[in-house]
């Protein structure tokens, strides 16, 4: 092989290497460029000791119903760092984000709210979102409630448009501040007993977004005489009304009675799936 031929081959290899590096750089840079979404994203939050697996039934049902064509994930590590998994196309229809907390047994609800805020800020940075919907199961509702409580005056955050509470233990959990038939609600929805968390959440009566959010409260009743889903009494779940109804754009409740009304089965119920889909996207 002549020196001239070796020189030509070397030049070709250098050009090919340059093109590969440039292509990789362009791909990496494109991933960092913010994408403006044209549809309101919906975030799903799991409960105590759980994970995004608890959200799969509901998000998969939305996909099967054809109301969304994008399901991605936002995973929060123990240090509060957010890792987005998957990419949302700019023209995605009703994109869903499954939110997962690595520290899924954290009882500091202010901290849970801060983690949710970090997720929302990350999505805002990446996708320039202006509005959001939030769906919480069990403790996920406390993360949502404390996020709203602690950020009510922050006008730079996306506007909450729809909120769904599933099995929310706003006024206590059976065995941890509540028991069957202990809690009673006045005609106004005010509970006769308030634990420390509920007294803190009372701030929502003045700070909840005014005439902006449509609220759906789903709770379960096993129909076993306890008036509960096994973990949360109906009164504890329904005490959300006293906190938000006066300022919500609308407020409605749906009770799931029978085996599907058990606490964990509520996020695995086709009845709940249909209610969610109709409320969020129909």
UniProtKB/TrEMBL annotation:
Record keyword Membrane present: no
Top-level taxonomic group: Bacteria
A Pfam family recorded for this sequence: DUF915
Sorted UniProt keywords: Hydrolase
Entries under InterPro entries matching the protein: AB_hydrolase_fold (IPR029058), DUF915_hydro-like (IPR010315)
One Gene Ontology MF term: hydrolase activity
Classification via Gene3D superfamilies: alpha/beta hydrolase
Official protein name in the record: Putative cell surface hydrolase
């Amino acid at each position: 092989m002549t020196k001239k031929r070796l020189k030509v081959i070397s030049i070709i290899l250098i050009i090919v290497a340059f093109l590969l590096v440039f292509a990789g750089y362009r791909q990496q840079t494109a991933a960092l460029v913010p994408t403006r979404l044209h549809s309101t994203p919906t975030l799903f939050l799991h409960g105590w000791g759980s994970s995004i697996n608890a959200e799969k039934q509901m998000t998969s049902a939305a996909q099967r119903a054809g109301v969304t064509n994008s399901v991605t994930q936002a995973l929060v590590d123990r240090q509060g760092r957010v890792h987005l998994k998957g990419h949302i196309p700019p023209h995605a229809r009703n994109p869903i984000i499954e939110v997962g907390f690595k520290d899924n047994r954290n009882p500091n609800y202010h901290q849970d709210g801060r983690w949710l805020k970090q997720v929302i800020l990350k999505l805002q940075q990446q996708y320039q979102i202006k509005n959001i919907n939030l769906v919480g199961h069990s403790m996920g509702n406390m993360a949502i409630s404390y996020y709203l409580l602690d950020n009510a005056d922050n006008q730079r955050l996306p506007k909450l448009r729809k909120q769904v509470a599933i099995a929310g233990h706003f006024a206590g959990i059976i065995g941890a501040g509540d028991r069957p038939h202990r809690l009673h609600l006045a005609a106004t929805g005010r509970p006769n007993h308030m634990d420390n968390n509920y007294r803190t959440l009372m701030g929502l009566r003045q700070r909840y977004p005014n005439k902006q959010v449509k609220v759906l409260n789903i709770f379960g009743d096993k129909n076993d005489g306890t008036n509960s889903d096994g973990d949360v009494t109906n009164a504890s779940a329904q005490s959300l009304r006293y906190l938000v109804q006066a300022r919500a754009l609308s407020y409605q409740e749906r009770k799931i009675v029978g085996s599907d009304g058990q606490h964990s089965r509520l996020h695995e119920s086709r009845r709940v799936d249909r209610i969610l889909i109709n409320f969020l996207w129909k």
